[in-house]
Amino acid sequence: MRGAPEPFEPRFGAGVLDQLRARLRATRWPRPAPGGWEWGVDVEYLIRLCAWWAEDYDPDGLLDRLGAWPSYRWRGVHLHHVRSDGGGLPILLLHGWPGAPLEFRDLIAPLSAAGHDVVVPTLPGYGFSEAPEVPPSAIVVAELLAELMATLGYRRYVVQGGDWGAFIGARLAFSHPDRVAGYHCSTPGVLPLPPDLGERELSAAEAEFARGARRLRQGPAGVHMLIQGQAPDTLGVGLDDSPAALAAWLVPRYRLLTDCGGELERRFTNRDLCDFLTFYWATGSAASALRLYAASAADRWRLRPGERIIPPVAVADFPADIARPPREWVERLLGDLRRWTPMPRGGHFGAFEEPDLLAADLLGFAAGLSAPGADC
Q: Could you tell me which residues are beta bridge partners of residue 309?
């Protein structure tokens, strides 16, 4: 097949891991302030985590975990492609920031066991995917992934995404309704604004959501959107250079965006956190990953009045997610909402936090879609 993905073995550059440990040990820490997390990151907690990262973490274990799935590169995009023996619709899983394909570590197996081929790309500029010379917007990434799925031979498929993955998946479904048999979203709060916003009065729930979304962007859980959307490289220089700085920026996001009640240990082990941190630092992709925010702000996608996302849609509504819109808000975007599932627990990283719940919902949605699988 012309332009087919080529086998790829994820590896860190020579000396990178020694440099990682040396930089962690040489970190010049600020004096902790009273109040811990009230100041952004709990410095005392971070000192302990970074000491564990330097002395006890096994980076080769991360490569082994990634190696559990067949790995390829295509036009600079790193992807995992897991084939099944069944005839179910292929499923494209899309991560976001500060996520990684590792989010799907416990989701891939049940999907594959149920007869679905699974494709998990790493977004351009993230991890083992190359950073394009011109940082791509979400619109550009969606078109690239449509081409990837066509290259793999898939005529129709299901898309599942959270965070940027939800936004990119929505754009893919909107632009290619003939290819996307169904779109499953686990973070509906990141979808584009409804096209008829302002054309009629908002419901009380919609008005409260709109007020809450504005507060969120100005608060601790949303401040990254402002900074990364305007000056990604200003921040990225420090994050690519210092693993401690990267941890100080990312760890509060994991704490604020997950269903952990402020206690990271309820959702993340030290190994989990260091897997995600190493994914960004050892590949030198912290800054290039941030550029997706600025590129997408400059190349913004909004539905016009009368436009809708046409393929069947399912929404998994996790209770601890940020900016949870009411159902009527999301219905403005869609032509065919098939499924709305209030989840009993879980947050912004639903695939990582509650893979069993998400797998059951996604498989139930996919089972109701009638379409052929692939021609390869």
A: 334
